[in-house]
Backbone:
């Protein structure tokens, strides 16, 4: 195990051990402060941020260059976040005092920072890799057919989403308008079935050139880090538009990601063997081992946890997703986002969307404040949380992915 | 009419009138020369290029700044290509000698230039807006159902494609490998049904913010310029993967665009009223007038023209496509690419894909060299050409969109 993952490692910030950002985590993000609106790279530790630009300027870290630390993490992860994280780990280890050479030790309070999109997203791909989710949706919408499509157990099914509307946690989500099919044909107006999808995504690190592929054994070399994703969905728009070319406007109005990118290095202890796949995948997708991430997840709606599940039970793994997506020779860039699709476990309280939790609107979801929901109402706040268990009550946390629904801009009469 | 579109306007480059790039056209592109590998913006005139950086440095054009002329056209079109084109038109008009103050008059031979991607593509959307194409595909693949889906005449159906593999004309196209369904289930290997799609696309100019929409009357204000598009398609990969989330790897290996972006200003005389739509579109899509582009198109395969058609017969127009795509409040950036979908006319020699020309591989397409094709073979070269007729034999040309098929990288046994 990398020394930076050692559960016994201690930080000189004594509160760090109880945080979801202990010294064993050290996720990367982009932030600004009140006095400086140039987004710059930082590493979260406890309730603080190590300002990598300040540390670089202080001469304590001879790489990367300051240019790599501006605007987004794309260049830094293409260069390699691993060495930077290991150096930050050294600097924060109890007994190290090198940061005393930097103003304020290069550290500021997370409460004083505004977080920004961690990456400039080149392409955004969304998969559908939970067997339970795919089965649930099939049962609801195609009750007379087998719930899974014939291709589902052969291909990690996915599609391209919209890169321009991937936004950092906290960005409000405007209820979209669009075409909804009614008894008298389609009308245009605000979505009446606004939903969430609990997902986990990874950003790519090292790029490939047009024509290159990624062998399954090398897939994790291109995964830079992992975030929580909320793939907001307008079910009524989606249901009317999606045949035969897939989801378009029912998805492309907003996709939220958590601001702190947990690196593959920090996650190294938390990969577990995925469940065996039947039928066996084709050789190009046969991973040995086939690594699933043991990541606890929960969805909170207005203060009530409405779903608790685990990411390790997904049918298709991140490695298989990336190798498949690259198998036609498409170019991968640093900062592409690949999201998992809705994470749904086998139990009804493990379903990762309101569509499933309310079984297509047939069942009300009770909230602790006495209200109930089928789909989202204006003003609702959805918070996704995730963490890996270190043991002894310690966690490698992912922070939160939050969004609040704003009302549609007009009454639906037009644009 | 803008003076720059006047058919009587004459350039001091006397050969320009017979070219598809006369002074009434003046499309923008990005180029490099042997001695300078920094892509810079130019305007095509006849068989020459006006080097906008040289003209700017020569002090003849006080705007835009040189920064806007580097790497891609995104900033220039966000600023506004119209004023720049009108100034270049003045400089090239017979009698004007201002360019004599610039080294070599700021002009170089197109033969000495290498063309690059005109824009950094933020998001790429591909529509399916030809009724004949949608009907043909429906007849082939769903022979027992109505050929058009119930949504087709209500929605300009589209989906997100992959931005990273949109490439400039001339970029070779590697035959992709992928999953193909056979009698014994899927296997992985090179596509056996490699196809083209004749399309026309537009790049956006002025951006919108998250939550904004674009009223139909304002749609053309956001269209910067138009290019020819070849949406290369692997039909066997596509057929197996596309349900229920749409095309993914069957499309994302390559999309070619012509290098010279013909501006909406140059196209002003060539918009015609689109055919009436039945049923009437919902109010947000009801354009008055509903403008179609009278653009002649042809597809050449290894020297034989296999398709001649016209873009004006598309069911959904560019304005409707953009207004629909923005109707859910998604953010539009300068340099997004919106492609039309396959342009197919009603006659069999007007079909814009080999899938339709060969009717799903049932009919051979005869070439002038004695060969025949159903789908593409390695080494085949496809050239798309397009032009608007000015009258008197003159044209506003789009140049060419060319690609040659390279063999798959391996024998299909693996990656």
Residues:
């Amino acid at each position: 195990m990398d020394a930076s993952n050692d559960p016994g490692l201690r930080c000189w910030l004594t509160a760090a051990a109880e945080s979801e950002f202990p010294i064993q985590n050290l996720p990367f993000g982009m932030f600004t402060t009140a006095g400086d609106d140039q987004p710059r790279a930082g590493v979260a530790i406890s309730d603080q941020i190590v300002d990598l630009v300040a540390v670089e300027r202080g001469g304590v870290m001879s790489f990367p260059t300051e240019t790599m630390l501006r605007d987004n993490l794309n260049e830094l992860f293409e260069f390699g976040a691993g060495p930077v994280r290991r150096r930050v780990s050294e600097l924060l280890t109890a007994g190290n005092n090198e940061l005393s050479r930097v103003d304020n030790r290069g550290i500021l309070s997370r409460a004083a920072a505004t977080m920004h999109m961690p990456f400039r997203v080149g392409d955004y791909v969304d998969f559908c890799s939970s067997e339970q989710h795919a089965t649930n949706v099939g049962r609801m919408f195609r009750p007379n057919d087998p719930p899974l499509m014939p291709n589902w157990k052969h291909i990690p099914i996915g599609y391209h989403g919209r890169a321009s509307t991937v936004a950092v946690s906290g960005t409000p989500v405007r209820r979209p308008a669009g075409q909804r099919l009614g008894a008298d044909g389609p009308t245009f107006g605000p979505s009446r079935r606004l939903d969430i999808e609990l997902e986990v995504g990874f950003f790519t690190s090292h790029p490939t050139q047009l024509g290159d592929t990624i062998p399954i054994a090398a897939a994790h070399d291109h995964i830079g880090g992992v975030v929580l994703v909320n793939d907001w969905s307008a079910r009524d728009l989606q249901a009317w538009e999606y045949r035969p070319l897939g989801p378009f406007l029912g998805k492309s109005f907003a996709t939220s990601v958590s601001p702190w990118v947990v690196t593959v290095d920090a996650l190294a202890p938390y990969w577990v063997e995925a469940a065996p796949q039947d039928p066996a995948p084709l050789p190009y997708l046969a991973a040995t081992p086939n690594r699933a991430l043991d990541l606890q997840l929960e969805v909170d709606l207005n203060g009530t946890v409405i779903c608790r599940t685990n990411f390790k039970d997904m049918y298709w793994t991140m490695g298989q997703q990336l190798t498949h997506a690259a198998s036609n020779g498409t170019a991968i860039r640093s900062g592409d986002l690949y999201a998992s699709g809705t994470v749904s476990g086998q139990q009804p309280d493990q379903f990762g969307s309101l569509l499933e939790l309310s079984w297509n609107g047939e069942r009300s979801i009770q909230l602790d404040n006495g209200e109930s929901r089928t789909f989202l109402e204006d003003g609702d706040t959805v918070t996704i949380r995730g963490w890996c268990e270190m043991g002894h009550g310690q966690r490698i946390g992912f922070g939160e992915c939050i969004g609040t629904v704003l009302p549609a801009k007009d009454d639906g009469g037009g644009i």
In short: Chain A touches chain B through 70 residues (CB under 8 Å). The CA atoms of residues 219 and 322 of chain A lie 6 Å apart. The first strand of chain A starts at residue 28 and ends at 33.
